[in-house]
């Protein structure tokens, strides 16, 4: 009797249909695929970014001496000159011509190529792209440079972490140019005036030497642009080697 009651009290198990099993498998596969894709993108940026860093170190040694400056030049502005810097020759399209260093971004070193084509922005040998119509490093006007926020090494992933007063260094064959970060701005993709000779004032003749860095915003989206502005502090002769304060930040002092 008890056995019969137990048997009657049991609810029959629902058999999983082929459709429900397939649905669960697809959901699981989707979650795994998204996780794997995210991991791949993060890993890809780390690997490609490392390759771009190595390429920058190699190219920097081709531009000129990169050994640290003399001990007595350890003060931030000790070796900087503020007179007219040497004229930088215009580079050919896609040609590498400078290296940018941003200590705030974790020992950041990237090669700057001429022109904002995908060939430059996606390159393992470059990664940063010079707006061809903008000024040369140290030249009167606006030296404007673009870089990916994410993907292809993501050089400007952390551009929003710059703080007022941070130094940005640009090494060319003729000089080391030193800029100081001023502020961020968020603009739509159509705001081309950010790379005008005087940023955001396209009708105003250049009255200073500026650096403008542009990238996408928010991350993984081309919906807007994140802009970082800096002003030129001065320059140091290429033969003098890497500015001592930069060498110290990179652990090469």
Automatic annotation (TrEMBL):
Keyword Membrane listed: yes
Keyword tags: Hydrolase, Membrane, Transmembrane, Transmembrane helix
Keyword Transmembrane helix in record: yes
Entry-linked InterPro entries: Sortase (IPR005754), Sortase_Class_E (IPR053465), Sortase_dom-sf (IPR023365), Sortase_E (IPR042003)
Superkingdom of origin: Bacteria
Region Disordered, annotated ranges: 62-93
Gene Ontology molecular function, alphabetical: hydrolase activity
Residues spanning the membrane: 21-42
Active site as annotated: 148, 216
Annotated NCBIfam families: class_E_sortase (NF033747), sortase_fam (TIGR01076)
Protein name: Class E sortase
